[in-house]
Amino acid sequence: MKEFPFIEIENKKYPTVIMGEDHFTGWFKKCRKYDSEEERENAYRETLEIAYSLGVRGFSMSPHSTLIKVLKEFKKKHPEIVCISNHHWHTNYYLGDKSLWLGENLERLGASEAFYYDEEIIKDSSWFKDANIEKRFSKEEINSFRLDEEEYQQQLAKFSFCDFSLVGNLGRSALINLGREDIVKREIELVREKGSIPIGLCEGGGLALLKYEKMEVAGTWIWINRHEACPNLDYALKMIKKAKKPITAYRVFASPEGFNLEKSISFIKNVEQIKSIVVGIDSKEQAEETFSKLHDYWN
Q1: Rounded average pLDDT over 57-65
Q2: Max Cα separation, the chain?
Q3: What is the pTM of this model?
Q4: Domain that holds residue 218
Q5: 119 assigned to some structural domain
Q6: DSSP letter string over 64-88?
Q7: Could you tell me where the DSSP H helices lie in the chain?
Q8: Which pLDDT score, from 0 to 100, does residue 296 have?
Q9: Rg for the chain, CA atoms, rounded
Q10: Do residues 19 and 253 touch, judged by C-beta distance below 8 A?
Q11: Are strands 93-95 and 145-147 parallel, antiparallel or unpaired?
Q12: How far is the C-alpha of 126 from the C-alpha of 118, rounded, in Å?
């Protein structure tokens, strides 16, 4: 079947359809339990093969040793595929010796975002409604956040087969929106030193996009679908229309109305600045169904 199209970013091919791996990691309560890593490995490999046969040439990867091994081998077999690393899970960012990924610290990040952001922008946002601002970090604590550069470089080394690397993945773009752009800028430098191209992970949507645009990233990934974006859909779309760099949308198919490929893709295609999508897949059967149908709406 025909390949899904590419765009060009910094003289490199960049896929407009990317298969995500979250459903295979088991991290966001998204996937079934595997009885063994061998079972997980086989399930992911079979799904890669189906996706590839249906024209998918982009694949993202997070720090899961089994999945890294499979995708690295797959890229050796198919060197034309493009891999994007999301190498942050539970690493890199600290306050003292405590990871900012700890549940308590993630809660405090959310509280800090709710307290320090512009109240008029986020007052009706579902992203911040349950935040307990009493648990927020102080300005002094925020100024003490640090990037463990040795650990970061070790993570990048695991993803040496990747062509692009996501940066700034913590909370709703918390580092950028809490005034620690310097950490993300250092990530960008480290990624480029390794010969990879940095892409900003912008879960914070409209709150962080234009700040990313001023950095040396080649583009951004934004959480957005026809119902939701951060802090709300209207505000995020207003900021997206100002973007100059290509945007990749993820969580595209999330909907309280259930999965609807046609409506979801129609919404994304109407946003000129969105050039690429991430598609979460949980099995070879779902890959077969989704990617075969996607050709009718995306090419």
Answers
A1: 97
A2: 55
A3: 0.96
A4: 6-93+147-298
A5: no
A6: -HHHHHHHHHHHHH-TTSEEEE-TT
A7: 22-25, 37-53, 65-77, 103-116, 119-122, 139-143, 149-158, 174-177, 181-193, 209-213, 233-240, 261-269, 284-298
A8: 93
A9: 19
A10: no
A11: antiparallel
A12: 15
